[in-house]
Design a protein that fits this description.
This protein is an alpha+beta fold and 431 residues long. The chain has 14 helices and 18 strands.
Length: 431
């Protein structure tokens, strides 16, 4: 949510963000409701002042008939204004929740992912002396989608054997990396961050109350969520959905910032609107596991924190040795209303002869924090401000498994395990 004063002062910029994100939100109507709400608030303040003045006159005395009649009229008028105020306020907040965050100046204009801006590329495409296979052809014996379809439905899967162990190796690798102060310090210095604070590991709930998801701006698109209306609760689509609200309604000391979490969670998405797309294999699933970073900072450190998260993402993928590119997402590919700036990492998938998105890093400024009422108090003052929030993928397990299997497949059908994961797997190859 944006500050209403900011919307008043920067209406044209906010309208431009609505247009650039292809959203339907009437800023002019919002401002009219804001003005009407303020007028009604003044009327309420005036009538309550009259009531207080009348109460003062009657204090300790028997009220006259005129005073009783005046009191009755004031009560009726107060109730009428309060009813109008509530109606206008309700309409106002419905529109306020539709207003998107503004967009960073460096975000490129564009309709979809084809117009994202490539910032940098790492490594080279792997060379094969054979036609590379897709991950299902290489590891079909350890990735079962057919039994999963019979038991759970389409877009579910089982992982067995070395592929299952590879998932646990990836989890261990991420947790060891993000809790290593030396690694975080090196990457922080690289991007100009003043904090070497490591990440707090977390295993998060997989369900979140609907009102909290709305505050996170993660309730919609509801067609892509598993929503249990009877319980007013949803299955999360990422650990971010329950990490972001961790400090809801709290006031954090400035010296405790940044606060950084690395969360592990099973995640759920209906994949609505993707019928017939990526149906084979494990690229696009209804259930998947994910490692997600969530950070809380001061406004001054919000942007550099996003750069740190991207540096961590690059470090993780580079340690695996996978060819990838970093892209700045365009306005049409940014996703939710909350994003101020969004960056993706796309890994090379040999069987598709293209890059596919495996990581995203979203900077929300204070957009979510305003809804969540997550604030901090500046050191040495009583001044309270909203924190700035970032979230970013460490690994979406299914997609990075695909990248490893396909990029390191061998002619004999085996898979070379990336060196950084070999200590966790206790072997050099998967057969």
């Amino acid at each position: 949510m944006l500050d209403i004063q900011y919307i008043r002062d920067n209406a044209s910029e906010v309208k431009r963000a609505v247009t650039r994100k292809s959203l339907d939100c009437d800023i002019d109507t919002l401002l009219l409701l804001d003005a009407k709400k303020n007028t009604l608030q003044k009327e309420l303040d005036d009538i309550r002042a009259q009531k207080n003045e009348l109460n003062t006159k009657m204090k300790g005395k028997k009220p006259t008939d005129e005073q009783l009649e005046e009191g009755k009229n004031i009560k009726q008028e107060t109730q009428a204004i309060e009813a109008k105020f509530k109606e206008v306020e309700d309409q106002f907040f419905v529109l306020m929740y539709q207003v998107p965050n503004v967009i960073s100046e460096d975000t490129p204009e564009g309709k979809d992912e084809e117009e994202n801006l490539v910032l940098r590329t790492f490594g080279e495409k792997p060379e094969f002396d054979f036609t590379p296979k897709n991950h299902m052809d290489v590891c079909g014996k350890n990735i079962d989608t057919q039994k999963a379809a019979q038991i759970s439905g389409s877009r579910f899967n089982y992982l067995f054997g070395d592929v299952a162990l590879l998932q646990f190796a990836l989890i261990d690798f991420v947790m060891q990396t993000l809790t290593d102060t030396k690694i975080i310090s090196t990457l922080a210095k690289k991007v100009g961050s003043g904090s070497e604070k490591p990440f707090i590991p977390a295993i998060t709930p997989v369900m979140c109350r609907d009102e909290v998801m709305k505050k996170m701006d993660r309730f919609d698109p509801i067609d892509d969520r598993y929503y249990f209306e009877k319980d007013n609760i949803l299955l999360v689509g990422s650990a971010e959905h329950t990490l972001g609200p961790l400090h809801m309604d709290e006031i954090i000391k400035e010296e405790d910032l940044p606060i950084r979490y690395i969360g592990y969670s099973t995640s759920f998405r209906r994949e609505a609107g993707t019928y017939g797309k990526d149906t084979s294999g494990i690229l696009r699933r209804h259930q998947f596991d994910k490692l997600e970073m969530e950070c809380f900072t001061t406004p001054e450190q919000g942007l550099v924190e996003q750069e740190l998260l991207v540096a961590i993402q690059e470090y993780l993928v580079q340690q695996l040795g996978i060819h990838h590119q970093v892209v700045l997402k365009c306005t049409g590919d940014m996703g939710g209303k909350a994003d101020f700036r969004a960056i993706d990492i796309e890994c090379w998938i040999p069987s598709q002869n293209t890059f596919r998105e495996t990581h995203t890093a979203d900077y929300m400024t204070d957009f979510q924090a305003r809804r969540l009422n997550t604030r901090y108090v500046r050191t040495g003052t009583k001044e309270k401000n909203f924190v700035h929030m970032n979230d970013a993928t460490a690994f979406g397990i299914g997609r990075i498994l695909i990248a490893i299997i396909e990029n390191f497949q061998q002619k004999d059908g085996s898979i070379v395990i990336p060196k950084v994961l070999q200590p966790y797997m206790r072997k050099e190859k998967m057969v």
